[in-house]
């Protein structure tokens, strides 16, 4: 099936099977920042933005994004670089596998709720797993990035 | 998941004709459960073009299209305004926002999942399910039927009520399936619901009878609840433990809705 969608501001056309998932399509056309983790809708590392909302690309069929806007971390480069700085200051990075998804989630959170409390940040990010850090340093880094002191 | 073809239908007639054409043709809501169950589908029927992503105030009730996502439901001001926002609260505890942006109300209700937090909280209200072609039944009636109704779930209707409400999801870790969920609403009458037993949620009729006939000893209500509830073992926990949880949380819930 021929599917046309907008990826990071550019029109794309892909030929996919009915049961192909967006994660596999994106990786097959070279977007390797989107990672495969559990591939079972549970870990969040495959997160992308679909019409500005975070979704799990491992669980969205590519045919369903026809005519829609898909964004990966490449579309928020500047923000991701700033968030990265905060991550490294707090020692919140280890393997980095989950970072792109975290950056997209933080971007979406900021749009929905520009001034979140620590609890709201935790809630928003609870579906994004990190197997290295234990989350404390990430929480601190994200709070620093969002410009918030402890609330 | 295997699927040979995918059709985004333009009408109810087209959707239903396709659904009836083969038992291997399936409606796709968010598709999360179809994926999880590695469904073997011939044609996936997508209802996205049928205008089902709406939550509307219809006076006595709120009507929710089956393609509304869990996240849209949770964030709706109509739903937040209903009985201290208990439905929003319950749904917000399902996985993370990126998951809830995909999962649909239709797929969640139609599937009759034993663990369902949405079904447990909806049973605290009077809820009607609308199917195409023209069939309406209460959520309770639908859950009591064996198997699944052979039609398309188009809308659910929640009767408005201004109740005090309590919801508790008990799970081993926050992203896990619940090992028990409890909903209590107190409007003109009490409704007490327990789900993830691990069977699908049910109303506790004896407990409700006690409370609705003036019974005011919450410990006694909790004892009745733990006696009448039918529980079983699952990989996550034992039935006996579920009964203990029922005792604790029914009492706590009753205290909460009477504050
Ligand atoms: C990893 C994981 C964890 C989960 N954890 C929880 C949890 O903790 N608590 C909880 O409550 N739920 C949980 N769920 C269930 C989830 O919240 C949804 O209820 C579930 O995925 C079904 O929604 P869906 O939109 O994905 O349905 P789909 O997968 O699209 O559909 C499910 C079934 O319903 C049918 N169907 C869908 N829409 C219609 C319709 N309109 N008419 C007729 N038939 C229809 C489909 O053909 C299919 O048989 C979890 C699911 C997964 C995959």
Describe the protein's architecture and organization.
The complex is a heterodimer of chains A (151) and B (259). Chain A is an alpha+beta fold and 151 residues long. Chain A has five helices and five strands; from the N terminus they run ββαβββαααα. A five-stranded mixed beta sheet of chain A has the order 2-1-5-3-4, with helices on one face. In chain A, a hairpin with a 2-residue loop joins strand 3 (47-50) and strand 4. Chain A is elongated and about 45 Å long. With 259 residues, chain B is an alpha+beta fold. Chain B has three domains: 2-44, no CATH class; 55-159, Uridine Diphospho-n-acetylenolpyruvylglucosamine Reductase, domain 3; 164-257, CO dehydrogenase flavoprotein, C-terminal domain (Enolase-like, domain 1, 2-Layer Sandwich), CATH 3.30.390. Chain B has twelve helices and twelve strands. The termini of chain B are far apart. The A-B interface holds A 1, 18-19, 21, 40-42, 44, 47, 50, 53-56, 59-61, 63-64, 105, 108, 123-129 and B 1-6, 8, 28, 30-32, 35-36, 41, 44, 46, 48, 71, 92, 95-99, 101-102, 174-175. The structure holds flavin-adenine dinucleotide.
